[in-house]
TrEMBL record, chain A:
<feature type="transmembrane region" description="Helical">
    <location>
        <begin position="173"/>
        <end position="195"/>
    </location>
</feature>
<dbReference type="GO" id="GO:0005886">
    <property type="term" value="C:plasma membrane"/>
</dbReference>
<keyword id="KW-0472">Membrane</keyword>
<keyword id="KW-1133">Transmembrane helix</keyword>
<feature type="transmembrane region" description="Helical">
    <location>
        <begin position="202"/>
        <end position="221"/>
    </location>
</feature>
<feature type="transmembrane region" description="Helical">
    <location>
        <begin position="31"/>
        <end position="51"/>
    </location>
</feature>
<feature type="transmembrane region" description="Helical">
    <location>
        <begin position="252"/>
        <end position="272"/>
    </location>
</feature>
<dbReference type="Pfam" id="PF12679">
    <property type="entry name" value="ABC2_membrane_2"/>
</dbReference>
<protein>
    <submittedName>
        <fullName>Membrane protein</fullName>
    </submittedName>
</protein>
Automatic annotation (TrEMBL), chain B:
<feature type="compositionally biased region" description="Basic and acidic residues">
    <location>
        <begin position="304"/>
        <end position="314"/>
    </location>
</feature>
<dbReference type="InterPro" id="IPR033434">
    <property type="entry name" value="MucB/RseB_N"/>
</dbReference>
<protein>
    <submittedName>
        <fullName>Membrane protein</fullName>
    </submittedName>
</protein>
<feature type="domain" description="MucB/RseB N-terminal">
    <location>
        <begin position="137"/>
        <end position="232"/>
    </location>
</feature>
<dbReference type="Pfam" id="PF03888">
    <property type="entry name" value="MucB_RseB"/>
</dbReference>
<feature type="region of interest" description="Disordered">
    <location>
        <begin position="296"/>
        <end position="316"/>
    </location>
</feature>
<dbReference type="InterPro" id="IPR052944">
    <property type="entry name" value="Sporulation_related"/>
</dbReference>
<dbReference type="InterPro" id="IPR029046">
    <property type="entry name" value="LolA/LolB/LppX"/>
</dbReference>
């Protein structure tokens, strides 16, 4: 009894995380954002369904095997959104987390509150990470349902020409969701670091997207091939390995580790900035 | 404040660790120290390769080309740059090979009875009967001749034109290997400096082949395992079921009809093919007769009707071939006539305007000499 009264009572971490998540989800713009993300697989699926005329492939790469093979649609949609749309979504959550609070003047209160700044950053990062996972999982779910309705098919046809049973196909979709989410985390962590330096959320989004586009452009030049292994965007093409059978894991591990390095750098920079930030 | 300083310090360490991680990921995987293996003479190493029994394995082959030739669409494995081939074999003739190209893939499966070929780009499956006849013939040929005698022949044939040495040991795909080096004898006129073959110490199977040319340290072409699992492979890998909805084309390798045979003989008769030079200087020379050439030209001028978007990327229309040759090479002329010279870092091809062709791993001058010998 006595110890409880003398030591400062810290809010349990679980409750703080839950409250952060509730804050994000309750915002109307989050709802509309997620809703528009759900439209992506539907639009992509309907578009290809209309284009499907029975002869010839629907397009290059994954699109070629989508006819009669609906469970490929969630994977296809996630890869379609990875280069630009999902980094934008990650940047929006990250911009809202710190720069948004600063813009509304609420960050000051949070910094003054008896909560460690690193802990505050951790909670914000958790919010961004959880929302990214929710967004990709939602897209995959809508994509799988849309694909099953429009294209049907038993199991999942891989690029290698083998057909995976339903359970394994769902496993591959889940793996794609995780792999794509980790890549978006890499971008969002850097966005969070930018977010700690400004109080304008638009600056965060513009800088992050500009960076992603710059990385994509740098990845095109052959003369810069020494730089390519360092660019997070350059490993995104190799994620198509998830649709090969047997699953080749080396490139998937490599791209995940690369994104992990970006997460570490981004969060460390954000922590550094948060610790030295003036009230 | 002390706590703040600790946070900044830890965060700075995090940035450094992340950057170091990027550096580690960007570096090519180190091969590790060269293993200690019992010394072996080059002759016995070659003999053991010739007599080795095929093993069951699965692995990834990496192809690194720097040949200086233009890219072939849809086949990165043959173009400049790095690409991969994944392969599995049970050591008894059944195999599976997967060729990833971008986000597409070609798969070839030989299940012992049929050869299946799948292309994800157009969802087509091609089915060919497994050529059992051929294999039996090869088997019989192998049995009838003494493998040891055969290996001796191979060694002496190699030694006639090259120096064979064992240049230490190395690791390829995490397996210990002997580095066998074939160097052309000084009198040989070839653009190749040496051929390095990494031979697995246990299986006596070549795991990596590198072509090195004069003037550069890095190989012009290298093909080798980056990952190798020796042992029985999953039997399911050696069967193929065409996916539902895929178009299955069946190509029967039935006995060629008399008409086909006659046609083939006629075509062969129109091309006189010969070999000029020996050893590393070997130049393959061929000459197409004027009739064949005019046929070729006519097919080139045929109007193209299938230029639709459905045309697969890999198809090169006949008419573009001559255009392509002109684009790839540079025009040359001399006492022998005139034509186009296509050079790569491992050799060249000389295509004369009158249908003569010379091909070999030799410099231009040797090609010109060889083509001059064709009347």
């Amino acid at each position: 009894m006595t110890t409880a009264t003398t030591t400062a009572v810290r809010a349990p971490l679980g409750r703080q995380l839950r409250s952060e998540l509730r804050w994000i989800i309750r915002r109307p713009r989050t709802f509309f954002g997620l809703l528009s993300l759900c439209l992506v697989p539907i639009v992509a699926g309907v578009g290809m369904w209309v284009a499907m005329d029975g002869d010839g492939p629907l397009g290059p790469g994954l699109a070629a095997i989508i006819a009669g093979n609906g469970l490929v649609l969630p994977v296809f949609t996630l890869f379609l959104s990875l280069p630009l749309l999902l980094p934008l979504i990650g940047a929006i959550w990250a911009a809202d987390g710190i720069a948004g609070e600063a813009q509304h003047g609420t960050l000051r209160g949070l910094l003054l509150a008896p909560v460690g700044r690193v802990r505050l950053l951790a909670i914000k990062a958790f919010g961004v990470a959880a929302m990214t996972l929710i967004a990709t999982a939602l897209m995959a779910l809508v994509g799988a349902v849309t694909g099953a309705i429009l294209f049907g098919g038993q199991g999942m046809l891989t690029l290698s020409g083998t057909t995976l049973p339903f359970v394994e196909a769902v496993g591959r979709i889940a793996l794609t969701v995780l792999l794509v989410t980790v890549q978006v985390w890499g971008v969002a962590a850097v966005a969070l670091a930018i977010s700690t330096t400004t109080e304008h959320p638009l600056v965060v989004m513009a800088t992050t997207l500009g960076g992603v586009i710059l990385f994509n452009v740098l990845g095109v030049f052959e003369a810069l091939d020494w730089l390519h292994p360092y660019l997070i965007t350059s490993s995104w093409n190799s994620l198509a390995d998830v649709m090969r059978d047997p699953l080749p894991t080396d490139q998937l591990w490599r791209s995940t580790a690369l994104a992990g390095c970006y997460v570490l750098i981004g969060l460390s920079l954000a922590a550094m900035r948060m610790a030295t930030k003036d009230n | 404040m002390n706590r703040r300083r600790v946070t900044v310090g830890v965060a700075a360490a995090g940035v450094v660790a992340g950057a170091a991680g990027l550096g580690v990921l960007a570096m090519p995987a180190g091969a590790g120290p060269a293993p200690d293996l019992p010394a072996v003479s080059a002759e016995s190493l070659v003999e053991s390769v010739v007599t080795a029994k095929p093993a069951a394995f699965g692995g990834t082959v990496e192809v690194a080309n720097d040949l200086g030739i233009p890219a072939l669409p849809g086949m990165p494995q043959l173009s400049d740059g790095d690409s991969k081939v994944r392969m599995w074999t049970d050591g008894e003739g059944r195999f599976r090979m997967q060729l990833p190209a971008g986000s597409a893939e070609r798969t070839v499966v030989d299940d012992g009875a049929q050869v299946w070929s799948w292309n994800s780009e157009d969802q087509t499956v091609t089915k060919l009967p497994h050529d059992a006849e051929d294999r039996r013939r090869v088997d019989e040929a192998g049995k009838s001749s003494d493998p040891v005698a055969l290996s001796r022949e191979v060694v002496s044939a190699l030694q006639e034109f090259s120096e064979i040495t064992v240049d230490g040991t190395a690791r390829v795909a995490n397996r210990p290997v002997y580095e066998l080096v074939l160097t052309p004898k000084p009198a040989e006129r070839t653009v190749l400096r040496e051929v390095r073959v990494a031979v697995d110490a246990e299986l006596r199977m070549p795991l990596r082949v590198a072509l090195l040319t004069n003037g550069t340290a890095a190989p012009a072409a290298q093909i080798g395992f980056s990952e190798l699992n020796v042992g029985p492979q999953d039997a399911g890998l050696f069967s193929f079921t065409p996916p539902a909805g895929a178009e299955v084309k069946e190509e029967t390798a039935a006995e060629p009809t008399e008409q086909d045979k006659a046609k083939a003989e006629e075509a062969l008769g129109q091309i006189s093919q010969q070999v000029v030079g020996t050893g590393w200087d070997t130049v393959l020379v061929a000459k197409a007769t004027p009739e064949l050439l005019t046929q070729f030209e006519q097919s080139g001028q045929r109007p193209q009707t299938d230029r639709g978007p459905r045309r697969a990327e890999g198809d090169v229309p006949q008419g573009d071939i001559q255009e392509m040759i002109k684009q790839l090479g540079k025009p040359v002329s001399g006492d022998w006539g005139s034509g186009t010279l296509i050079t790569s870092r491992v050799g060249g091809a000389l295509i004369a305007d009158d249908g003569r062709v010379a091909l070999g791993a030799v410099p231009e001058q040797v090609l010109v000499e060889a083509i001059g010998q064709v009347k």
